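Next comes this protein.

***
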Amino acid sequence: MAHYLDAAAANLNDGFVVAIDIVAKEGEGDAVADILERLIEPTMAEPGMKFFMPYRSPSDQNAFFVYELYKDAAGWDAHNESAHFRSAVEELLPKVERRERAPFVPYVD
C-alpha cells in the first residue's frame, strides 16, 4: 500500500473510521437529511472527532452514507454517549428502513 504524501490525505488515513449506510422509509428522506445536517455542528465540536460528513445519493433520495473519522475508538464511544447523538438517533430510527454502522481502522501492510 502506498504511503500518503499529501498531509490532508495522511490525516484522513489516521484514526478510527465509522461508515454508516442509512436508507430512509418512503417519504422520510428529507426528515433524515435534516437530522443528519443538524448533527454536523455538534459532532464536529467533539474533542475526539476529526471529520463528520453525511452524503445523500443523487439517484435515490432515501439513501444516505455518513463518513465519520475519530481520533480513536474512544472518540467514537464518547460520540455514542453524547446528548446530541442520542437525541438524533431517537428521532432518526423510526424514519429509517435500515441503518448499518461499520467501524474500520487504516490498513497497514
